[in-house]
Automatic annotation (TrEMBL):
Signal peptide: 1-19
Originating organism: Deinococcus aerius
Superkingdom of origin organism: Bacteria
Protein name per UniProt: Amino acid ABC transporter substrate-binding protein
Primary location recorded for the protein, binned into one broad class: other
């Protein structure tokens, strides 16, 4: 998603020396993916506790192309971006991570693999009659911490008189939305579609999109795994497998 980043010079200096390479990954026989599995349909825990989703299948395709197995590690987003990547704790990260110039100073991104947007999620029927653009003065808007949604809310909504409530956990924001404690919750467009599919009538999208953004796979700065990821993305698109994954995981509108 998404997800803001403080650019620290120390991380820039350290990331190059800790960058996992294709050769290193092949030598150890495993590609370690870090993800925050709270972002359906991109990454979430299935009934048996296994992490699954659109991002996971793409990472699995990369591991297959490298001839190694994929290991998925659940990492909270605050620790995932960028610390888990720059420290070498994981070889790569996928968690609906938006490509931004600030982040690109610290990590290496693959080519974009999904076009998304930050949107407003409201209760079914929109009882608060929330709209955007519109009068948000006095409205409380929820955002998840360290996300591009939080950035956009601070830049666009707060100056117009909205109160921004920050949640460490997206589910906590949804709980407050259900209870009517906030007027809307900012999230990624596919999340709304997934909620509407799983919980018919409970949630809806309101108003215009707040931002548009591209997701990318994340690697330590300078890692040649980024180029390998681009080759995998090109293969998936050419073979039709990418579209199959979209059909499998993403509710298409």
């Amino acid at each position: 998603m998404k997800r803001a980043l403080l650019v620290l010079s120390a991380l820039v200096l350290s990331s190059a020396s800790l960058a996992a390479t294709v050769a290193q990954v092949k030598k150890k026989g495993v590609l370690v993916l870090g993800t925050d599995p709270t972002f359906a349909p991109f990454e979430f825990k299935g009934p048996g506790g296994e992490v699954q989703g659109f991002d996971i299948d793409i990472a699995r395709a990369l591991a297959k192309d490298l001839g190694v197995r994929l290991e998925v590690r659940s990492v909270g987003f605050g620790a995932l971006m960028p610390q888990a990547v720059t420290s070498g704790r994981v070889d790569m990260a996928m968690s609906g991570i938006t490509i931004t110039p600030e982040r690109a100073k610290v990590v290496s991104f693959s080519a974009p693999y999904y076009r998304s947007a930050q949107v407003f999620i409201v209760r079914g029927g929109n009882p608060g009659k929330f709209t955007w653009p519109g009068d948000v003065k006095g409205k409380t808007i929820g955002v998840q911490a360290n996300t591009t949604g939080q950035y956009a809310a601070g830049d666009l909504l707060k100056p117009k008189g909205a109160t921004i409530k920050v949640y460490d956990d997206f589910a906590a924001g949804l709980a407050d939305l259900r209870a009517g404690r906030i007027a809307a919750l900012i999230g990624d467009a596919p999340t709304v579609a997934d909620l509407q599919k799983r919980l018919p009538g409970q949630y809806a999208k309101a108003g215009q999109d707040l931002t548009a953004e591209d997701y990318g796979m994340v690697f330590a700065k300078g890692s040649d795994l980024a180029a390998a990821a681009n080759r995998t993305l090109a293969r998936l698109r050419a073979s039709g497998e990418y579209q199959q994954l979209l059909n499998k995981w993403i509710v298409q509108k």
